[in-house]
Design goal:
alpha/beta; 8-stranded parallel barrel
């Protein structure tokens, strides 16, 4: 399993997205398309970015009854994305249904990963508002184990949890980790952060990097630095 840097294209329009991607002439970064861009531009943005030669992580975090998720995943599968995701909180049955919907007739499918707990959810909020009495780490590990039992490829987690997920689910179980910043960069509104080099050491398979690349004075140089530190 090769490590890779995924660039979060958190833009609100196709115009802003392509203005950014046009800077990359000799490399085609793996990109993440999230809700903001997908809801603004629809499936056409996915097709256009794919046509330009980029791998795509479609980050829509599906969470609904199993049948709805299954049908939705079948639609997303036709977009030829490379990775997509859902909420592990939707239960094992929902994750199994998602996998079924995502798998094409020839047996191929995008990578499917589950979101354990959002990085904005603290243990206190989880316990007081969601009435989950276990610790946040135990919850994340259990959700990851559920995702593995459902046949998924891995989970989205903070870099700080990647090691414990690997320990519980095996080294082949994928960890996709946001919250990565350069050692000399701004932390922004992320609390649980680490550097590309540290994420590599911890065992992340993919790191998702947004503003340290997209808001850099030279985004291409920032991307290449990130790849150098994480992939080597």
């Amino acid at each position: 399993m090769g490590k890779d840097v995924i660039v979060a294209c958190d833009f609100s329009s196709a115009e802003a997205t392509f203005e950014f991607l046009d800077k990359f002439t000799d490399v085609k970064p793996f990109v993440k398309i999230g809700m903001e861009l997908y809801y603004a531009e629809g499936p056409s943005i996915v097709r256009e970015i794919k046509k330009r030669g980029h791998k795509i992580f479609l980050d829509l975090k599906l969470h609904d009854i199993p049948n709805t998720v299954k049908k939705s995943m079948a639609v997303l599968s036709r977009l030829d994305v490379d990775m997509t995701n859902l909420h592990a909180a939707g239960t094992v049955d929902m994750m199994k249904a998602a996998l079924e919907g995502l798998t094409r007739e020839d047996g191929t499918r995008p990578i499917l990963i589950a979101v354990t707990q959002l990085t904005s959810t603290s243990e206190e909020r989880m316990q007081n508002e969601l009435l989950i009495n276990a610790s946040i780490n135990d919850t994340i590990v259990k959700y990851a184990q559920n995702a593995k039992a459902a046949g998924l490829d891995g989970v989205v987690c903070s870099p700080l949890e990647a090691g414990m997920v690997k320990a519980a689910c095996g080294t082949e179980f994928m960890t996709v980790t946001p919250g990565v910043r350069f050692a000399d960069g701004e932390v922004g509104d992320q609390v649980r952060v680490t550097t590309p080099a540290k994420a590599k050491e911890i065992g992340s398979d993919y790191i998702v990097v947004g503003r340290p690349i997209t808001a850099a004075a030279d985004p291409v140089a920032a991307y290449k630095r990130c790849v150098e530190e994480f992939v080597g």
